[in-house]
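Pasting two entries for a bug report.
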Amino acid sequence: TGSSGINAEYGDLTDQQKKTRVEWIIAELQDYEILPYNYVYDRDRLVIGDPEEISWFLWNLVQYDVRETWDITRQMIENESQMLNHSYSWLTPPNKADEGNGKTSYHHTHTHTHSQTKDF
């Protein structure tokens, strides 16, 4: 028999440990500007693998990928002659605000409803 969602990966963790891992993941994605700091989610629903919450999370990741791909493509077209002169990294540096203390902050708490406008 198989498990699904976070439980397949973290079956031996307590619910609080699973919630903490989700907060760490979201904070990391925010530090790398993949998710905005105003990204709202329901941590408990994400932990239990709620399909609507998972879809919302994945939709935000897809939006980032599409925007990033579009921006990179546009830059390459505009600067085609200089394209091979620079190295490329897919990851952006962590948020400068967290560099001073040498730590990443994982204390983001959000609530939301999915009826918000989701602009692209």
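Entry 2 (this is the one that rendered wrong in the viewer):
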Amino acid sequence: MIRILNFSVVSSRRFLIPNTLTAWSRGIAALAPGDQRPRREINYNVYPHIPLREIDSLSGWIPPHESPPPLPFRINRSKSNNIPVYSEIRKGRTLHLTIIRKIEGDLRALSDGLRRLLGEDAQIRINEVNSQIIIKGKHVKPITKWLMHLGF
């Protein structure tokens, strides 16, 4: 039996590539809006006694408060004046970690606040030697936004 396939010619070298775009577009069209994974709303008001600040710059950057918020921990900004929350990928690009550095004070109080922010199932490790908190997963944006709202 002879099978006939549609092929495209790319450039002058005549590479033959099967037309799979139609099959791909049919797969995308089959997805209904209800098939997408629901997004979880994040409540940034973990410490209700501290009022949240509004972010009004286009880039999302806001300067720190002159006086630190009344919390048992403090997070110093980096040399470029950013919140020190970093993303790291390990173990053959299969393990995604979020690392918070430059923490002073009570690390356990910060980890409790992070657990309330991210959910009780968040895997949080405390490195007391380096004053770092390591969280399993990609959580850089919500943590940075939360810390900016707190005033760090």
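Dev reply: Rendering is fixed now. As a check, the viewer should reflect this: The radius of gyration is 23 Å.
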